[in-house]
Protein: UPF0235 protein PZA18_09180
Amino acid sequence: MTWWRVVEGGVRLSLHIQPGAKRTEVAGLHGESLKLRLAAPPVDGKANEQLVAYLAAQFGVPRHRVNIVSGELSRKKLVEISGVASAAPLFAE
Structure:
């Protein structure tokens, strides 16, 4: 299994999130997930909001196309982004 796969209408990402980092960035692989560091703290949904905003910006899509499928309260998340065909924008990090 890879950390991303094509699903109907978009891509699904398996992510490992590290909130409270110095800056928001891709940190490499963490097992079979892509590790993202987020500058936002894990309080009151701020890290999830920053995750959605970061992914929307990286993929050039509106925020409503980024959906946290599972793991909203966990570091391990499944995220779907509709309207894209690959996870290539994250490879450039």
Summary: The radius of gyration is 12 Å. The helical segments are 46-59, 88-91.
